[in-house]
Specification:
alpha+beta; Jelly Rolls; 2 domains; 7 helices
């Protein structure tokens, strides 16, 4: 789902890709028979089986612990299956809208931003929706109406609104109207839903993980309060099983194809410059590349601090998942990073703690994806990269780089542990 990921190059429209992936359209009678006979369920299970087999076939190379990456692959496909099931359950009915968190700290997909909480809701332009909530003190949130998921051929964003732009009362409370057209005389917060709109999406950005509280959102269909959903038919259930299986399998293949391309194009010690991607604004740019390190190597990445409201750098694993950001320091943003007096940020990517604040933990993985983002930025500085022996890291950093001890690291990680519970509260 990530706004930073775009492959393109297929030459096909989103609708063409969706039609190709879904295959021939079936009648209600055919789908009902498929459900009753068990074929719809078996097809769903085959999709999960194929997704797992696809990941296990990917060449992983060697790691210190045999089978470790394959174990992560299976955890990945469990998370993708959860995402697919969400499409069939909470995200299937625009008349009974529900806000769903996806991805999250365990069920990951699409190389999500470690500083983001993602919320999805199924909506449709045939109705109007009222969203209410409270800003609290989150750094920022980007709200979007869109057609769906990039991996399914959907990359259109129709309308956007920043949380900081929303009119609210003195306590931070707000309301937003979603509708195909703005009602005559309506002057409040409004987002448009063109005919192709299928989802409303929220990306909450956290900068200070110690103190920020997520904004709160609630949604209901105008005029639908108290209405029960339509009865679930066998035909509809067959369609939902197909959607869940398709989402899971296509997500598996789509992101892995990009990983494969990045890996094959990898030049050790290089990091591509920042560029905009499909569906993103011109003042939001991303850098995506690959990294690989021997056990005794470290990679130093440095760049001039961009003139941006927000920026960050993070690692992803072989499966296009962000690494464990809740209990390890696998990414840092502008508020968490040490900035040198010369206006440059320098990061050490290594398997061991080098004793500096800007260490990015590889989690012991020998290779993976590296990303950085400049969001709402006026400048687009390109990074420089140097691969050095681990024991020479301090020699390669400026003399004034402060040391960062074990107690400081423990406290920084404790902030992450507490932040996770605020970002993903028990519901």
């Amino acid at each position: 789902m990530s706004e930073e990921a775009a492959i393109g190059g297929s030459g096909k429209s989103g609708q063409q890709l969706r039609d190709e992936l879904r295959g021939p359209e079936r009648s209600q009678e055919e789908n009902a028979k498929r459900l009753i006979s068990g074929e719809a369920w078996r097809s769903f299970c085959r999709s999960i089986e194929e997704a797992g087999a696809h990941l296990l076939e990917f060449p992983t190379g060697e790691t210190a612990t045999p089978g470790e990456l394959q174990a992560q692959a299976m955890k990945y496909v469990l998370g993708l299956t959860q995402g697919g099931i969400l499409q069939a359950l909470q995200l299937s009915d625009p008349d009974t809208p529900r806000l769903v968190r996806s991805p999250d700290s365990e069920a990951k997909w699409g190389a999500e931003n470690v500083d983001n909480q993602y919320l999805w809701c199924r909506v449709g332009p045939h109705a109007q929706y009222l969203i209410s909530g409270n800003k609290n003190n989150v750094f920022e949130a980007l709200l979007e109406t869109k057609d769906g998921y990039m991996q399914l051929g959907d990359d259109q964003v129709f309308d956007t609104l920043l949380l900081s732009e929303i009119e609210c009362d003195a306590e931070g409370r707000f309301e937003i109207l979603l509708a195909a057209e703005r009602p005559a005389g309506f002057s409040g917060n409004y987002m448009q839903m063109p005919p192709e709109t299928r989802y409303w999406c929220v990306r909450q950005y956290f900068a200070d993980w110690e103190s920020e509280v997520p904004a709160r959102f609630e949604i209901h269909r105008v005029g639908g309060e108290g209405e029960a959903p339509a009865p679930l038919t066998p035909a509809r259930m067959a369609e939902l099983l197909d959607e869940a299986g398709l989402w899971t399998l296509q997500s598996t293949k789509f992101w892995q194809e990009w990983i494969d391309q990045l890996r094959r194009d990898h030049v050790k010690g290089r990091l591509l410059g920042p560029v905009p991607f499909v569906g993103g604004a011109r003042d939001i740019v991303y850098g995506n590349d690959w990294w690989s390190l021997e056990p005794d190597e470290a990679m130093i990445v440095e760049f001039e601090v961009p003139d941006a409201r927000y920026w960050q750098i993070q690692l992803c694993d072989l499966w296009f998942r962000t690494m464990d950001w809740a209990t390890r320091q696998t990414g840092l943003n502008h508020a968490q990073s040490y900035i040198d007096p010369d206006g440059r940020a320098r990061f050490v990517i290594a398997h061991r703690d080098p004793g500096v604040q800007n260490w990015i933990d590889t989690w012991g993985h020998p290779e993976g994806m590296i990303q950085y983002r400049y969001v709402w930025t006026k400048t687009k500085p390109a990074p420089r990269v140097k691969i050095v022996p681990f024991e020479r890291v301090r020699e390669e950093l400026p003399n004034h780089t402060p040391s960062y001890g074990l107690e400081e690291r423990r406290l920084a990680l404790a902030i992450r542990h507490r932040h996770l519970q605020r970002r993903e509260p028990v519901t």
